[in-house]
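Work through what follows:
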Amino acid sequence: MRLLNFYTSDGAVHLGAVQRGQVVDLTAAAGESSEFSSLSAWLRAGQSSRQRADEILSNGLTEGVPLGTLRHAALVGRGSRIFCVGLNYADHAAENNLPPPSSPIFFSKLPSVVIPHRAEIPLPAASDQVDYEAEMAVVLGKRADCVSEAEAVKCIAGYTIMNDVSARDLQRADKQWFRGKNCNGFGPLGPWLATADEVEDAANLEITLKLNGQVRQHSNTGQLVFAPATLISRLSQTLVLDPGDIISTGTPAGIGSKQVPPIFLKEGDQIEIEISGIGILQNAVGKRRER
């Protein structure tokens, strides 16, 4: 399944499933059940919600609406947690003149900065060096507490795409990453969750970022230093991961700040991130916020 949150005509958020270019309104079909109120609620409800969604989609009784006519809502709610990973592609470590890390470098991104597919990324007043980062994100579907790598695989609900937008000048000024990674709108995520059974081989997916139609990043998830199962297992040794939590697995080489001359995002830029087997995340860059 490919699942997304979308806005209805009256502004409510519903859960939808994408089928052949149409979106089936699972929230309406399930009779407004709380388990189907959003993707996060659906993930936390467990196997019973998966079975019911399969039943709704297989009976063919619910008509869909064209995907292109819908306005996407944020893919996760504020109750989810987002963990990101630094320097998790060897080529990205190299462009930063650093060796690949010997263990995962985790940091957090606030769920409040998440924006959906096709939403605008606002430029913060405090930064003139806003950069892009194409990443594959893993979404948890089961609780993970001190799990092995083999057990971690079973905790994966599916995959999506994140743009780990970053203010490089704030990162340098603060000498850590929190503020530079957590400006308003710095978490484009989507366009949907591709459930694990939809993705044939998550260790062999092409990942490409285009800025205004020009390829700026291109790699393969096989180049990750630490695979998703390793990341889940390692993180679960120190805290419990819950359904709906996200681990964004890191970005490959090609970030704007390492280009000669550097390339930073400006109003009107168009960003497209494609990961084979998952989809395409598109966002434009909006206006700079006033001081």
Observations:
- The chain has a mean pLDDT of 95.
- The longest strand covers residues 279-288.
- The chain is about 20% helix and 35% strand.
- Residues 82-288 form a domain with the Fumarylacetoacetate hydrolase; domain 2 fold (CATH 3.90.850.10).
